[in-house]
Amino acid sequence: MAGIYLIGILFMGLSMWVSWRLKSKFKKYSEIPLQSGYTGREIAQMMLADNGIHDVKVISVAGRLTDHYNPADKTVNLSEYVYEARSAAAAAVAAHECGHAVQHAKAYSFLKFRSAMVPALSIASRYMQWIILIGILMLQTTPIPLTIGVALFGLTTIFSFVTLPVEFDASKRALAWISSNNIVTQQELAMSKDALKWAALTYVVAALGSLATLLYYVSLLMGRRD
């Protein structure tokens, strides 16, 4: 069990550092006024309209960095720090979330795959940790519970890696749109790129942490068989 704790501590520390960098970058770029003067809400509405999307609502939600796109009710949810803000950070985040809406409208393959995994993932995440714990305790008796737990954990790991191209593609669409439509200056575009880079790194760290943990559980199974 010491191995899993070491992995957990390592990736927890890395995740905290990336999260701190993301928050500091967002705060820094939120304080720099956007020369075009558009708010996050206006940028989102323009990007949706420009892509022929008229059935998605842009709404405000409480919190910081709580921005997300909900494909179930077709809403772009912008945090209060983005919705009415006029900054490079707000432009980047608003356009990124609209990037997901564009993916949905265009049936982007990785988003479809990710969405199809959600029902199974919600069930797996509910029981997975208990099954893995039971599996580890019973490992000397039978490998079956841990094998099931590893399979469920493998599903969450796949989900983490499928999320990566979804996030990177949304950022790519966002940056291309705000640049080509003169929403940001070249200096502001660099800030937007930097903010989205650190946001993407949070998903990269989560995926690598999940993979490292999965490999540890697999090594337990392999060790038992040896």
UniProtKB/TrEMBL annotation:
Keyword Transcription included in the entry's annotation: no
Transmembrane segments: 6-22, 198-218
Keyword Chaperone set for record: no
InterPro entries documented for this protein: Zn_peptidase_2 (IPR007395)
Keywords: Membrane, Transmembrane, Transmembrane helix
Pfam entry (one): Zn_peptidase_2
Protein's name according to its UniProt entry: Zinc metallopeptidase
